[in-house]
Amino acid sequence: MLFIALQVYAALSIQLGGVLAVALKPYDSLAGLSRDEVDAFANGVKVVGAQPVPPPIKDTSLKLVNDALHPWRPLSPGDQRGPCPGLNTLASHGWLPRSGVATPAQIMDAVQNGFNMAWSTALVITYAAFLVDGNPLTNLMSIGGSSRLTGPSPPAPAVVGGLSRHGTFEGDASMTRSDAFLGDNHSFNETLFQQLVAISNAVGGGKYNVSAAAEVRFQRFQDSVARNPTFDFSNPRFATAFGETIFPMAFFIDGRDKSLALDLEVMRGFFQDSRMPVDFHRRDGAFDGGGTEFDLIFNSHDYFPGFNNGSVNNFVADPFFLGTQTVAACALYEKFVNTTVELYPSPSGVLRDALNKNLDNFFLGFADQCTQIKPFP
Ligand code: HEM
Ligand SMILES: *[C@@H]1O[C@H](CO)[C@@H](O)[C@H](O)[C@H]1NC(C)=O
Ligand SMILES: *[C@@H]1O[C@H](CO)[C@@H](O)[C@H](O)[C@H]1NC(C)=O
Ligand SMILES: *[C@@H]1O[C@H](CO)[C@@H](O)[C@H](O)[C@H]1NC(C)=O
Ligand SMILES: *[C@@H]1O[C@H](CO)[C@@H](O)[C@H](O)[C@H]1NC(C)=O
Ligand SMILES: *[C@@H]1O[C@H](CO)[C@@H](O)[C@H](O)[C@H]1NC(C)=O
């Protein structure tokens, strides 16, 4: 371990000295290096650090978004796609870099322009994900697995795993992606999609509507309780799992169609192929959560945040969130701050600056209701 670290350090010194081309490559991990070494390396590569949050888009009208400037294209080798059909689609249409590696500002702009997600919603999701899955030094995150394109990573225990990384943001009981314990945690799963089709046929009249969403959510919950001994349905997954069942109705239905019922072949296009239908228009007006639909889905069954306690069919409440029947915003905020601290126990220098700025950016989404936590003074 020490030997490897010394080797890396030797290569690093050579590169910083600018003497030799053979050196630490920009995507090599900096794990094992000391703080000074990391700072030295950071000084030698392009450290962008955190950037300000982009402003809300002004025009939130109905608009053609599968347009001439944003055609669907198949993947090129190395392109990253992951568990989020929204971001996957934006990347495959060039609203995000087609590589699937992007800055928080690019993600915020893309979800607003491409789908009309509200600025405040985009802010919270983007910075939560970026803090736990992104690279604070280069300001880049993969929407799929880890990628060389995000540049050199800060030292372990930081991970910079991208959105496919299990347990930080990505979690269990997804609609179309398997639990990490049971299979592939980020690719479209046909078996799961067929279950969604069956439910939509049974209670949605052949479409994915709020009734179908409620039953899909419950069926996926029950399946994980029955088959995944490591099933984790506590926060933050508890909070994201319900909202995500509404997103398809909010964002994947053409803005000219006011039905709140999503055609299943259109849904497959987004979820499987990261593809908008021909002539697709984004929704009219920004979408900031869908309170009514959320309540309908949340209240259709008796949910509480918890986990399978070491074996299947052993779902218990998470004692920490006991009594938190609804999604508690401040606890959720605190949870993401805590995960950030676990990944970056004692950051210094440019790394600390970048983390602090991103924590400030994330807090903007909670400033009206929570007290700010400052873990890295
Ligand atoms: C704002 C930035 C966004 C980030 C960082 C993000 C990230 C993620 C992640 C990590 C997941 C996986 C969670 C899991 O199922 O375990 C996910 C799921 C999902 N996202 Fe996004 N997302 C964003 C915006 C959007 C948008 C704009 C849409 C729709 C247009 C969307 C639609 C969905 C849906 C439908 C799922 C659930 C997939 C499933 O359960 O099979 N997301 N997202
Ligand atoms: C989830 O997917 C990512 C990306 O492929 C993979 O690196 C990771 O090992 C998976 N997580 C688990 C727990 O299987
Ligand atoms: C897809 O989902 C089914 C049902 O949960 C599961 O049995 C299968 O292993 C999954 N496939 C992959 C590749 O994860
Ligand atoms: C979903 O569609 C079915 C079949 O048309 C309908 O009975 C049900 O009321 C719809 N659900 C909602 C919430 O509109
Ligand atoms: C989980 O199981 C262990 C071992 O049986 C037990 O001590 C603990 O109380 C359980 N936790 C909860 C929250 O039920
Ligand atoms: C966050 O960490 C603090 C300090 O360890 C702890 O007191 C608190 O309960 C944690 N909160 C969450 C939501 O995990």
TrEMBL record:
Signal peptide as annotated in the record: 1-21
GO MF entries: metal ion binding; peroxidase activity
Family according to the record: Belongs to the chloroperoxidase family.
Organism from which the protein derives: Exidia glandulosa HHB12029
UniProt lineage: Eukaryota, Fungi, Dikarya, Basidiomycota, Agaricomycotina
UniProt xrefs under Pfam families: Peroxidase_2 (PF01328)
Gene3D superfamilies reported in the protein's UniProt record: Chloroperoxidase-like (1.10.489.10)
All residue ranges annotated as the Heme haloperoxidase family profile domain in the record: 68-300
Protein name per the record: Cloroperoxidase
UniProt keyword annotations, A-Z: Heme, Iron, Metal-binding, Oxidoreductase, Peroxidase, Signal
InterPro entries: Chloroperoxidase, Chloroperoxidase-like_sf
Origin: domain of life: Eukaryota
